[in-house]
Amino acid sequence: MKPERLASRLDEMFALTKKGSLDWVVNFQTTELMEDRLKDHVTDENGDTWCIDECYTEFTCKFAGEPFHLITYELIKTCGDKTQTNNLLFLAPDGIRRFDLDILAPYNVENSKILTYKIHELWLLLLEKAKEKSPHVRLDASEPSLSDMPGANTVS
Length: 156
Description:
two-stranded antiparallel ribbon, 156 residues, 3 helices, globular, 9 strands, alpha+beta
């Protein structure tokens, strides 16, 4: 799917979600809450050491009569008060339920600041709906195992 088409669909989904007309299941895994000593660290050419976090989020719903399955991956590097992020998007077939960059790679969608913004806004709306105990939103969080993340690229 072209990024422009995905942006348009996200706008429609946002409006329908606000009305309570879409049922969502959102799964996410992140290393952000793990102790820094357990995370990967890299040293750059300037000698700065960066702490690496990874976050996967899977958004699933039925939209226009068809399954919609978007997986986002965010690589977050921090060094003191400096932060760098890298965001990837995947429109995977419904059967792909693994947070694995190698498996997801063929389903990569070209990302843009506007897509990142729209997905973030959808995420915030879904969090708001979940806090309101909406029957239309189910959030499932899980911690990655230390053998899987960071660095291994695979989380089941």
